[in-house]
Every structure is written in structure tokens, then in C-alpha cells.
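Hi all, posting the design record for the shared folder.

TITLE: backbone redesign
STEP: 1 of 1
STRUCTURE INPUT:
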């Protein structure tokens, strides 16, 4: 009985992933197909119109690509190779990668990291992916407001490193906070609801914790607490 239950739950989960993936990929495909048909029908289409249709189609194909790679990165097994990384450096790199996205959304990204290395035993790719997920959500939470700010802060606290990701965006109510991290929970049009589920899993696998403070229409602060690597590599 027990085994069967687990099995069917797993199949259901796979079915859900497939269903949402199909949904997310079908929309842009339909758009591109529509434009291609229009271009095919209207041989005398003015060049500006033609270019606009092609540009939109390129954007839609890029979006499909992004959705598929997001699914792929989430479906990779957790905790592959671990090594000692400098989290201050990784957060700087993530901020750099996310700056164009923030600018595009009219959001300022502010970074405060310690000047000395923050040593942590982690899988670098997983760590980067999870930081990107939090920063991306913070930027998206600010996208609808006038002066969006996302502040990334990091400091050590005893045997832990704390990473604060704060935004002054839309915030969340009690019910939204309660559902946070559940698989497929998303309030966005093109959201997957996989980002936080994945991030929480990675953090748990590192024996870390996450706390969230949020106020509707004021903003949100996520605090990640992760155990530092021991000073002595042999001890
Ligand atoms: P997605 O970003 O694809 O929606 P996530 O798992 O990354 O999926 O996030 C799930 C949901 O959690 C989001 O849709 C949003 O409602 C909420 N959320 C996450 N981070 C924030 C934030 N910084 N501010 C407000 N809401 C957030
Ligand atoms: Mg997200």
C-alpha cells in the first residue's frame, strides 16, 4: 500500500511537470506559428511590419529556450561535487549576471559583501542557481513599482554565513507566505513555481535554513543561513 502510494504520487508529479511544461511552451509556439503564417500569406508585407513580426518571433523562441533550460537546471540531481567556494565572490558574480535583468525592470541592485573570502563547502553551480533564483524573484517583485531596490548583504555570524536578499516590492500576505516554496506555486503569468522549491532543497542539503519576512506592498527579506566551511581543511 505504502509503496503504491509513493509510486502514484511520483507519477502524478511527473504528469504535473509535463502538463505545465506543455502549457508554457505551447503559448510561444502558437505565437511564432501565427506570425510565420501571416508572413507566408502576405508577400507584400512592408519591411517594418515584417521585421517586427520576426523580432517578436525571435523573442518568443528565446523565451521557450529559457523555460526549457530552467526546467532542465531544476531537474538535475542535487549535491553533485562539492568544493570550498568563496560565497562573497559568488554573490558578486551573481549580482553582475543579474544587473542587466534588474536594469531592464528599472530596479537598482545594491551589493554589500565582506572584503575577505567567505569559505563555504558547496556545489558551485547549485549555489549560483539558488542565489539567482532569489535575486530574480526580488527583481520581479519590484518590477511594477517606481523605485525598485534589491539589496544583497552578506555577513558571517559565528559558524554561519547569512545572506540577506531584500526588496521593496509587492510583498506577500500571510496566505502567500504560507504557500511559499510549495512546488508549482507561482503568482506570475510565466512563472514555473519551481525556483524556490529547488532553492529550499539545495539549502536543506547543505544543512542551511531560510527565513522570510514580508509585508504586503512594502517588500520582502529572505535570510539564508549556511554553515561555513571549517577553517582547517583536515579538521
Ligand atoms: P516563480 O518565480 O516562477 O513564480 P518561485 O518558486 O521562484 O516561482 O516563486 C514562487 C512564488 O513566490 C512567486 O510566484 C511569488 O508569488 C512568490 N515570491 C517569491 N519571492 C518573492 C519576493 N521577493 N516578493 C514577493 N513574492 C515572492
Ligand atoms: Mg522565481
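Okay, here is what came back for every position:
SEQUENCE:
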Amino acid at each position: 500500500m505504502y509503496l503504491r502510494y509513493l509510486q502514484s504520487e511520483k507519477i502524478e508529479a511527473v504528469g504535473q511537470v509535463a502538463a505545465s511544461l506543455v502549457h508554457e511552451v505551447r503559448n510561444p509556439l502558437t505565437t511564432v506559428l501565427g506570425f510565420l503564417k501571416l508572413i507566408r500569406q502576405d508577400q507584400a508585407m512592408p519591411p517594418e511590419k515584417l521585421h517586427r513580426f520576426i523580432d517578436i518571433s525571435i523573442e518568443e523562441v528565446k523565451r521557450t529556450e529559457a523555460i526549457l533550460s530552467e526546467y532542465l537546471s531544476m531537474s538535475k540531481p542535487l549535491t553533485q561535487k562539492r568544493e570550498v567556494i568563496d560565497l562573497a565572490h559568488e554573490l558578486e558574480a551573481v549580482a553582475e549576471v543579474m544587473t542587466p535583468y534588474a536594469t531592464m525592470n528599472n530596479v537598482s541592485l545594491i551589493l554589500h559583501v565582506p572584503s575577505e573570502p567567505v569559505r563555504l563547502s558547496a556545489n558551485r553551480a547549485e549555489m549560483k542557481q539558488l542565489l539567482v533564483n532569489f535575486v530574480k524573484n526580488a527583481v520581479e517583485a519590484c518590477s511594477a513599482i517606481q523605485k525598485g531596490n534589491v539589496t544583497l548583504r552578506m555577513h558571517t555570524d559565528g559558524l554561519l554565513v547569512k545572506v540577506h536578499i531584500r526588496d521593496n516590492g509587492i510583498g506577500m500576505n500571510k496566505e502567500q507566505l504560507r504557500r511559499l516554496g510549495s512546488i508549482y506555486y507561482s503568482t506570475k503569468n510565466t512563472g514555473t513555481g519551481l525556483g524556490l522549491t529547488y532553492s529550499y532543497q539545495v539549502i536543506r542539503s547543505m544543512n542551511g535554513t531560510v527565513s522570510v519576512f514580508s509585508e504586503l506592498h512594502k517588500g520582502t527579506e529572505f535570510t539564508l543561513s549556511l554553515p561555513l566551511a571549517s577553517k582547517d581543511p583536515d579538521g
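COMMENT: DSSP finds six helices and seven strands in the chain.
Let me know if anyone wants the other runs.
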